[in-house]
Design goal:
By secondary structure, the protein is of the alpha+beta class. The protein has three domains: 2-8 and 450-582, Aldehyde oxidase/xanthine dehydrogenase, molybdopterin binding domain (Aldehyde Oxidoreductase, domain 4, 2-Layer Sandwich); 41-138 and 192-282, Aldehyde Oxidoreductase, domain 4 (2-Layer Sandwich), CATH 3.30.365; 147-189 and 286-446 and 587-728, Aldehyde Oxidoreductase, domain 4 (2-Layer Sandwich). 24% of the residues lie in helices and 26% in strands. The strands form seven sheets. The chain has a seven-stranded mixed sheet. Strand 26 (588-600) and strand 27 form a beta hairpin. Helix 10 (358-376) packs parallel to helix 17. It is globular and about 75 Å long. The structure holds dioxothiomolybdenum(VI) ion. One of its GO terms (molecular function) is oxidoreductase activity.
């Protein structure tokens, strides 16, 4: 089915199942520990062995020699694979990293060997006996130091154009009545998802099955086939449950390659998981940025010039962090520029992490907006509202499909009691605590992409949905079940949802906030076809057939849905594809974040006290799972503002705090009262579901709202994240 004009009324609009706050249908499997994750497929892989990945011990250089003797003769060892015996290996498409390195080493902890043994302990202990000698060469590890060597990168598959200019930015900025020109920095961050990267690989002749933990099975099949140099048809990936991804499990990484190579060498199924201390330097991370923001405005607060430049680094072939993306579309202003620059850094690959681009960019832009509001002596909420626009500032020939930023800000201000905020920092005290209140806007693109599904009806009236969509903890199972239930006129209990198998029809996968809207649209398309065959099987006109309460109605006739499958199951499969609507309209999601902090006057300890997010993200398919997405994202925003920081050893070239003891993320005690308001919003330009993603929106702007609240409490403006207490002293 092709979606190429705005959606009219359709069965989803009934909202009998869609839009209801249903519990996750897979929830009991998770809370009882019976949901199977990649590392747990033991029964299917009898006689399996264990793999252990060895990471490079230098930041940049090459391997001189590998002496396997002691490791190979260690107890239980079945195989050792390095670049010397792996055969030719290519790169995948999405990640630039070489997933089994040698002899050249591009970054610290890049995978250099996999040891396969009878037990995990034997594999780990043999790894310690593998003798690798290296020659270290001088690498580049300090973004600030290489900033001036950065170049304007090529336009990437995702993200904004690297360099844009509208009107006369320099001229308008030079003559603006009120100006800001400041530089902000964001650190390297790690996804730190709960489930480590893990894979269970089994060969059957030249056919490979791999149980794994990745977000995009279609990319995974493509990339694994590419890396190993085998046909795509010979690769099957299964990811039924995923313990968090956040962009760090987009597609194939070293765990899957190592398990596959290890299983081939040992002639046994092999399972392995990346040990936690390897993950931070071996896999990808959100790259650090240096961002310069210039804003010029008239004294009434009208922005006349807005410019955003951002520098980040990466290994060769790596992408740039597209931090300028939000500035292109968020506020009005005739004269604008944006410029991304990319430097070479020999650290682990920088790549997508939840709201890549927008999250980093808004950490800077929304502090800058707070600073401008103060210079202008305008309330920060009013300053943002004053510069709202319904026309896409980056492309003034088109409008936003739906944009309720003003309502997000107004409703939030009302609900949060914004009136309590005092413009002069440090005005509110409670005992030894200084109280501050901050705000930030949020914007995140609403991409949508083709997605297929297969549905089956049996004689009991049960609907089974199959698609290779993944559920990374987001609630895909449930919203897909709700979609099929709504379309076929049944309760959610009558729907079985099967996800995460590349043998199923190819879906959008989970990434870039496109999963929810895209995958349910594919299910919609398949259900339209199933409805037609059901209607025809009863001799009904499909146009005049209705589905409700497990029955099919046409004229004065009503029959049980399952009767259509009396003589055999009915199947339907389809793919939703898209025309040009996403070019005709700017499709984005919007929000506003409000935060109250308390800062200890003596120790400068920062406590977040209250948080509110108001979000506009199309039709909300399930308010409970959508709220969970936003609450999780707000929590991540607290981490970004106050804690998260991969500390770079700039002489040796690696992230020092590469485990969950050293890399701090919020715990329950850090998280206060959180509230989420989801605005009514239906966007018929998106798809027949009229929905958008929300999982990344919830993060965008949170850190800046906290930064602004800290400033409001203390009068100290911190422009480099994270805002740790030493920066307030
Ligand atoms: Mo997302 S960072 O594209 O999983």
């Amino acid at each position: 089915m092709k979606f190429d004009k705005p959606a009219g009324t359709n069965p989803i609009d009934q909202m009998k199942v869609i839009g209801k706050p249903l519990d996750r249908i897979e929830g009991p499997l998770k809370t009882t520990g019976t949901a199977k994750y990649a590392y747990e497929y033991n029964e299917l892989n009898k006689g399996h062995a264990y793999g252990y990945v060895v990471g490079a011990a230098i930041g940049k250089g090459r391997i001189d020699s590998i002496n396997q003797y002691a490791a190979k003769n260690a107890p239980g060892v079945l195989a050792i694979v390095t670049y010397e015996n792996a055969g030719p290996l290519q790169k995948g498409k999405f990640y630039a990293d070489k997933l089994l390195a040698g002899p050249d080493i591009d970054h610290y902890h890049q995978a250099v060997a996999v040891i396969v043994a009878e037990t995990f302990e034997q594999a780990r202990s043999a790894a310690a006996l593998l003798k690798i000698t290296y020659t270290r060469v001088k690498g580049s590890f300090d973004l600030e130091a290489v900033k001036d060597s950065a170049i304007t990168p090529q336009a990437g598959q995702f993200g904004p154009p690297p360099q844009t200019e509208l009107g006369d930015f320099e001229g308008a900025f030079a003559t603006a009545a009120v100006k800001l020109d400041e530089t902000y920095t964001t650190p390297d961050q790690s996804h730190a998802m709960m489930e480590p990267h893990a894979a269970f690989a089994r060969w059957n002749g030249d056919k490979l099955t791999c149980w794994c933990s990745i977000q995009q099975l279609n990319w995974g099949v493509r990339d694994l086939a590419n890396v190993l140099g085998i046909p795509k048809e010979n690769v099957r990936l299964i990811s039924s449950f995923i313990g968090g991804g956040f962009g760090g499990k987009g597609t194939v990484l070293s765990d899957i390659v190592a398990a596959s190579l290890g299983a081939r060498a040992a002639g046994r199924p092999v399972k392995l998981t990346l040990q936690r201390p390897l993950i931070f330097n071996n896999t990808t991370h959100r790259p650090a940025t240096i961002q310069r923001i210039r804003i010029g405005a008239a004294t009434d607060g009208t922005i006349t010039a807005i410019g955003h430049e951002s520098w980040s680094g990466n290994i060769a072939g790596g992408r740039t962090e597209s931090a300028t993306a939000p500035t292109r579309s968020l506020y009005a202003g005739a004269n604008r520029m944006s410029h991304l620059r990319l430097a070479v850094l020999d650290l682990a690959e920088g790549n997508a992490m939840r709201a890549p681009g927008e999250a980093s960019g808004m950490m800077a832009l929304e502090i800058a907006m707070d600073e401008m509001a103060e210079k202008l002596k305008i309330d920060p909420v009013e300053f943002r509202i004053h510069n709202d626009t319904q026309v896409d500032p980056s492309n003034p020939t088109r409008n936003f499909s739906t944009r309720q930023l003003v309502k997000c800000l107004r409703d939030g201000a009302e609900k949060f009691n914004w009136k309590r905020r005092q413009a002069i920092p440090g005005s509110i005290r409670e005992g030894k605590w200084l109280i501050g209140i901050g705000v930030a806007s949020a914007i995140r693109g609403a991409p949508i992409t083709k997605s297929a599904a297969r549905v089956r009806l049996d004689k009991e009236g049960m609907i089974t949905v199959e698609t290779d969509m993944t559920d990374i903890g987001t609630g895909s199972y449930t919203i897909i079940g709700q979609t099929a239930a709504e379309m076929m006129g049944v309760n959610i209990e009558k729907v079985i949802v099967k996800l995460g198998d590349s043998a199923f029809p190819e879906s959008s996968g989970s990434g870039g906030q496109w999963g929810a809207a895209s995958s349910t649209s594919g299910v919609y398309a398949a259900c339209v076809k199933l409805r037609e065959s059901v209607a025809r099987s009863f001799g009904f006109d499909p146009e005049k057939t209705e589905f409700s309460d497990g029955k099919v109605h046409s004229g004065n006739r009503s029959v049980a849905l399952g009767d259509a499958a009396k003589t055999g199951d009915l199947f339907a499969e389809d793919e939703m594809t898209y025309g040009e609507l996403s070019k005709q309209y700017a499709q984005d999601t919007f929000g506003a974040h409000f935060v109250e902090v308390a800062v200890n006057m003596y120790t400068c300890e920062i406590r977040v006290r209250r948080m509110l997010a108001v979000c506009q993200a199309g039709r909300i398919l399930n308010p409970k799972s959508a709220r969970s997405q936003v609450v999780g994202a707000m929590t991540m925003g607290v981490g970004a503002a106050l804690m998260e920081d991969l500390v770079v050893d700039k002489s040796r070239g690696f992230f020092v705090n590469h485990d969950l003891a050293g890399y701090k993320v919020p715990v329950h005690a850090d998280i206060p009262y959180q509230e989420v308001i989801l605005l009514d919003d239906v966007d018929p330009t998106m798809s027949p579901m009229k929905a958008k993603g929300i999982g990344e929106l919830g993060l965008v702007g949170v850190a800046a709202a906290i930064a602004n609240a800290v400033y409001n409490a203390t009068g100290v403006r911190v422009r480099d994240y994270p805002i740790t207490l030493d920066k307030l002293l």
